[in-house]
Design brief:
Blueprint lengths: L6 H7 L3 H23 L2 H17 L7 H44 L3 H13 L3 H11 L4 H8 L3 H19 L9 H5 L6
Keywords: Sigma factor, Transcription, Transcription regulation
Organism: Bacteroides difficilis
Family: Belongs to the sigma-70 factor family. ECF subfamily.
Length: 193
């Protein structure tokens, strides 16, 4: 069966922007609604459809006919939605596994807060001098600008030294690092600003 290419498909194959505008106008909302049937999340559905359109443009996709084009769109959205759900499920299982692992560590070793802090400060003591100075000033509540002025270094150096300190402390403390009540502070976006 030989199906003719419509002007829309021909223009899409030539990567004419007008065809991509038409693609967006005619298919975006419909495909988002189709993806929502799988995902129940409008944001995730929109992301999937936008990614599909971007991929079509980047790979300079060519289509033989309008029916094959539509089949491609719906199959791609369905597959991407199912992959998204699989990823969410794997991520959820992983987080559950982590929570159970650390709960077991706490129960098995009966770790108390003082021990965790002892390990933290032992790790801080092992930091290189400048890195330790920056980190301790940060723990005292100083802002990056204040630390930079006090130590006569750039703000970027302060940020770099704080990142290095966290990485080193994380390595030194191992699984105990995740027991720190300070974790939220250490990972907050304010920490790296």
């Amino acid at each position: 069966m030989n199906e003719e290419k419509t002007p829309f498909i021909e223009n899409l194959n030539k990567q004419q922007t007008s065809a991509y505008h038409q693609l967006y106008d005619e298919y975006y909302k419909v495909l988002v609604l189709y993806a929502i049937n799988f995902l129940s999340s409008q944001q995730a559905a929109e992301d999937i459809v936008q990614e599909l359109f971007a991929t079509m443009w980047e790979k300079k996709m060519k289509f033989l006919s309008l029916p094959s084009f539509r089949t491609y769109l719906y199959n791609s959205v369905r597959n991407a939605s199912l992959n998204y759900l699989k990823h969410q499920n794997v991520e959820s299982l992983y987080l559950e596994h982590l929570a159970n692992t650390y709960r077991e560590i706490i129960e098995e070793e009966d770790t108390n807060e003082e021990e965790v802090y002892r390990l933290l400060f032992r790790a801080i003591d092992k930091l290189p001098t400048r890195c330790r100075e920056v980190f301790l000033l940060h723990m005292d509540g100083k802002k990056n600008e204040e630390i930079a002025t006090l130590l006569g270094i750039s703000i970027e150096t302060v940020k770099t030294q704080k990142k290095r300190a966290i990485q080193f402390i994380k390595e030194q403390m191992g699984t105990y690092y995740f027991l720190l009540p300070l974790c939220d502070i250490l990972y907050s976006s304010k920490f790296f600003s």
